# Entry
Amino acid sequence: MRTREIPKVSHKEFKELASENPSLLHENPWIVEGYIREWSAFEEWRDFDKLRATFGHLEAFAKAPNFITHRKSSLVSVKTRFDQYLDYIEHPEHAEHIYEDCWLEGSFEEFTRLGLPLYCGTLRMIHTADDPLFRQVDPILPEPLKSWNHVLPYYYTLFNHFWLLVSLPGALTPLHTDNNGTIALIAQLRGRKRATLFSPSDLQHVRTTRGDFFDPNLTEDPEFPTASLATRWHGDIDEGEVLFVGTNWAHHVETLETSVSVSFDFVDKTNLAAYARSNAWASAFGARLRRKPELIKEKMPGLFTDRSLSELDDVTLGRLVMKEVVQQGLDRQPGGEARSVLRSYHSELSRTLEPVAMALPA
Ligand SMILES: O=C(O)CCC(=O)C(=O)O
# Structure
């Protein structure tokens, strides 16, 4: 398998490169040094006592591995409070006692057999675009990148797009691609991680048609007969560095040193169309609307009859209602960048909906 090193650049170099080539995050992964040292979270969130005081009360899950992406893999998990998880991070040798009676999937014995540390990758700290926590991770993107997340309706309620990830050496996030066509960043506040990535055009070699992913730690696997044709991008993310993962790039991450990272998914001008086309948010939105049809009736009376509603699948329902929400946003928005983002989003949603053959009331 051909191997390539992920380029590591200073913020200054990145700014020059990204100004010349706005699509660079989709062409290969990048590690950008330095700019997150300006975050107040950079000092505060690497300190377990401060993390405990601020976020200790939050409910979370810890899993070994972080999740699974192959039908033959095994996973164990516990439901935990974040402070309890930090007890585990500080004293992994007390796992049996700390997580007595907490196993949701598997058991302590299975966890021991798996030999992987529990990974807390699901802590939900942010629910809205104007959450004050964003001030602690400012600037979340290096110049000249600009996130459009805050303009996209329901972005932070449809999926969790901001995580604090805490893990012990050996913790594993297996190979996967992110939902929603987003670009991801993994910002290393403490410790070190090793990343392996494959481009969207190499997915045919590292993902089966049923959706199982290759394990890059294996030299060969008969289930992935063409894996050797793929190019493996690899690099270590050190403290103060940020890995950028473009839309639909598969990534596999191993923790090398006790680690605190922030992971953030974003949409900008380069992936708005991929976001609009993605089924994941549309399906979640459609399912939510179906559970609460009064939301549609209240916000957009006359859009659907009960019959047309029941004939739509969740994805189409989610997209149609989102298009209407965006149109209402446009009607309220006098001008400026937000308006032009909404206009582009509206036209991408319209394009995606073109093949939907259905009659809606005018
Ligand atoms: O840091 C990790 O372990 C993986 C994070 C990740 O895969 C993501 O944020 O998409």
Q: What stands out?
A: The longest strand covers residues 183-190. The pocket of 2-oxoglutaric acid is lined by residues 66, 165, 173, 178, 184, 186, 193, 251, 253, 261, 263 (CB under 6 Å). The mean pLDDT is 94. Residues 88 and 95 are 6 Å apart (CA to CA).
